[in-house]
Design a protein that fits this description.
The structure is a single chain. The chain has eight helices and four strands; from the N terminus they run αααααβααβαββ. It has 326 residues and is α+β, with helices and mostly antiparallel strands. A four-stranded antiparallel β-sheet has the order 1-2-4-3. The longest helix has 47 residues. It starts with a helix and ends in a 15-residue tail after the last strand. 13% of the residues are buried. This is Amuc_1100 family pilus-like protein. Keywords: Membrane, Transmembrane, Transmembrane helix.
């Protein structure tokens, strides 16, 4: 303290130097910290840029050529698939309107005969959903050919129902084809050409089939399984809706439940007490049932919504219809 008092100017200079040194040290430390952070950010950004440049989808001519080659290969596979489904799809032979009506009546008679042999209940006016054509003819030969292919698929579906053990077909409906919904005005001139051009741009046509069946659980499982089996159902189908409920919604009344009556013994048989003695060991007679099953014996009511898919000729060149922008 005495030295500071004796040398005040020098002490002041030394104090200023010490404070300045501390301030400069803090500024240097802060600048170094900012430098480290900036350097790390720069290096990280550089690594990201290098990674993008080396990525497979970098915007380079080599990657563009590789992508175009992959897209072309995918397009070939899609076209191959389209041609394959057209080959696997059952063919439809050309037929005229009178031949179609005769074919429809013959198939109705055949299914009714098969249903009678299997004791399967059918609707009173059963006609595969083609009731209109039992008394009227299709509008044209082209319509008759389309309806003929549709009828073949409906017949295959009905035979599948019978083979799986369905007890009854309460309802069988189908959606109309575009050729059926077309009016006479749309079937002429430029309108008809426009419809053909619109149809050619589509690759498939969905035909909806609705059915209400009476059957048991086992046949239902078998039907759902065989519906997608190519050996059992050669047509492309998709089960869109499946609704299952019991045939009887309410339990039976007490007055409706009848216990089995005890069987009377056969006349002329010898009572057990009068049988001659023997060393043979016989099992006892089964006890008379004193209970019956009230629930669980009823059948099921099942509603099916099936999409019958028909692939059109445009499916063979579907890749060419896709947008060209890549």
């Amino acid at each position: 303290m005495d030295w500071i008092r004796e040398n005040k100017p020098l002490a002041a200079i030394l104090g200023v130097i010490a404070v300045g040194s501390l301030a400069l040290g803090y500024l240097l430390y802060d600048a170094w910290s900012v430098y480290d952070e900036t350097k790390e950010g720069y290096l990280g950004l550089g690594n990201q840029v290098a990674g993008l440049k080396g990525a497979r989808l970098a915007p380079t001519n080599e990657n563009l050529a590789a992508k175009q080659a992959a897209v072309d290969e995918y397009a070939k596979l899609v076209d191959t698939l389209g041609k394959t489904v057209l080959i696997l799809q059952p063919k439809v032979a050309p037929i005229n309107d009178i031949e179609f009506q005769d074919k429809l009546k013959a198939k109705i008679s055949e299914i009714r005969k098969l249903a009678g042999e299997s004791k399967v209940q059918l609707p009173a006016e059963f006609a595969f959903g083609f009731e209109d054509y039992t008394s009227t003819l299709p509008k044209s030969a082209a319509a008759a050919t389309e309806l003929s292919g549709y009828l073949d698929a409906m017949e295959k579906l009905m035979k599948l129902f019978l083979d799986c053990g369905v007890k009854g077909v309460d309802l069988l409906e189908r959606s109309k084809l575009p050729v059926e919904a077309a009016t006479a005005a749309n079937a002429q001139g430029n309108n008809n050409a426009a419809m053909r051009g619109q149809a050619s741009a589509e690759i498939l046509e969905k035909r909806q089939i609705s059915a209400v069946l009476t059957l048991d659980q086992g046949p239902l499982q078998l039907l759902v399984s065989r519906l997608t089996s190519p050996s059992d159902m050669p047509y492309f189908t998709s089960l869109r809706v499946l609704r299952v409920e019991n045939q009887m919604q309410d339990g039976p009344l007490t007055s409706e439940v009848r216990l089995p009556t005890q069987e009377t013994k056969v006349q002329g048989s010898t009572p057990a007490a009068e049988e001659a003695p023997t060393d043979e060991i016989k099992p006892p007679e089964p006890a008379f049932p004193d209970a019956i099953s009230v629930f669980g014996n009823e059948l099921l009511k099942v509603r099916l919504e099936i999409d019958l898919v028909k692939f059109l000729d445009a499916a063979a060149g579907i890749a060419a219809q896709a947008p060209t922008g890549r």
